[in-house]
Protein: HTH-type transcriptional repressor GlaR
Organism: Achromobacter insolitus
Amino acid sequence: MPQPIAADHAPAHATQQLTQASVLTAAIQEDIIAGRLLPGAKLKLKELALRYGTGVNPLREALSRLATTGFVNAEDQRGFSVSRTSREELLDITQTRQRIESDALRASIAHGDIEWEGRVLAALHRLNRQPMMLTDPEGLNPAWELAHDAFHEALLSACPSRWSMRFSLILRQQTARYRNLSVIGPAEADVRNVHAEHEAIAKAALAKNADLACALLSEHLRLTTALVLEHADRQGKVS
């Protein structure tokens, strides 16, 4: 019986395919989060191969990976499709995120050292320098989205649980998808001081006040979901 090939002795073409699948996973996920691939859309391999300039095999691997994180549905004999969105799912994502991120933040505060404090302050500073909204074209600022994700990651970065960090990342990415599907306008963004919310969370975390930091984080997530659902209702984009 042939022996399995060790990862470090895999053929070059196999390594290249794995690398290509990883790049494709990130690219397709980004298009789903940004709303360029809409909820419920069929993901036909031949069309995607032309779109991303790649082969069918790495595409199938990428879509299978995305199915494990909830961005893609994989059905026997029916292929792949973009996962649908719903009010119930967003509420579930938010409540799960509140629990997991609060636990992770509490652990991060307990284990946080001066390097962690520096990461939080640097991430907050970069976030505060980015406008949340663009006016031309109107919509969320992609640079703000990146800085926003980095800030939340920095808050949790001293948490020793890799699983908590992994699930937190998936939940943040799912939240970002809903945020992009129901983009608010600059005038509506002004009704909420998101910068002040971030400042308050960071201040409480750095002061080692875990109870307050977790309460502020949970409320921050709740407010985001409420605003997304309110706007989605008007647009009819989340059922």
The beta strands are 42-43, 72-75, 79-82, 133-135, 138-140. The radius of gyration is 20 Å. The longest helix spans residues 210-235. The chain is about 65% helix and 5% strand.
